[in-house]
Amino acid sequence: MDNEICGEDVECINVGTSSGKKCGRREKKNTTWSEAGDEYLADILIEQINLGRKDGTGWTTEGWREIKRKMKEKYSSECVKDKIRNRLRTIKQHYNHIKTLMGLSGFGWDDATKRVTASDQVWDDYIKAHPDYDYYRGRSVVNYEKFAIIYGDSIADGRDVLLTNQRPPHPMEAPQANIHDVVGESSSSDKMDEAVSEAPRVKKRSTGSSRRNVQDESKSDYELAHAIKDINTTLIYLADKMAQSEPSQADIVAAIEELDLDLTSEVRALRLLKDPQVASQFLTFSTKDRRHAWLMTELSGSI
């Protein structure tokens, strides 16, 4: 059996010592975990999610019992539930940190290497203000996608989970504008533009100074109207791009039908996936099993 279950030092309980100390005596010790241990744990957790043993408050008693049994069976360790809890706290912290980085301008995700990416300058500036994040520079997090399935949207700030090949939009890249409102504003700006350009010039006697003031004001109004028109044109373009990127209802229904859910779960899934952003996240998963696991997590949290 395997004796090592993780690739970094984490604090947990010392159990099964040769001196005869009983299971449960709390003694600090550093236990080494490996990526293989993380992956095995993640697979067990996802399996329990698929079996409906995780609800809005956490794992069910039956779920924890099965998780503990399988980990003990593979790693031959007593009181493994405490070790699992400790490890999950560490993984949850890493997940939060990666999600934070990927929500910032300048950071991305390389799905091939399973790493957070950024230029050296971006890393240097951010680490200067947040030294703890140097841990993720150049480090692969191979099980990130699996733990995204496990944690769903219950991590950190309560927002939707970010999947491995998604980049959160920068506020200026995806304005939340109603396309009909934008079109209406565009029409108004066109009329303003026409009014400014076609307005008759009234001749009147004035001093040289006042004539210059009138010309400056007219030029300023004209430039302002054009600036408003340009902004609205940009908003219309971005709104169109957002609409084009939304998944079709047919794709969503087909993906749900592949999961062989009961009728009640199908109805709840369709309600959940009415949100285009949530639907996009669901379709991002490339395999049927991962879509099913993610969907079960989301549905259990929405009860």
TrEMBL record:
Q: Where is this region: Disordered?
A: 183-219
One family name in Pfam for this protein: Myb_DNA-bind_3
Instruction: Cite the Myb/SANT-like domain residue spans from the record.
Output: 32-126
Where does the source fall among the domains of life?
Eukaryota
Q: What InterPro entries would the database entry show?
A: Myb/SANT-like_dom
Q: What is this protein called?
A: Myb/SANT-like domain-containing protein
**Which species is the source of this protein?**
Cinnamomum micranthum f. kanehirae
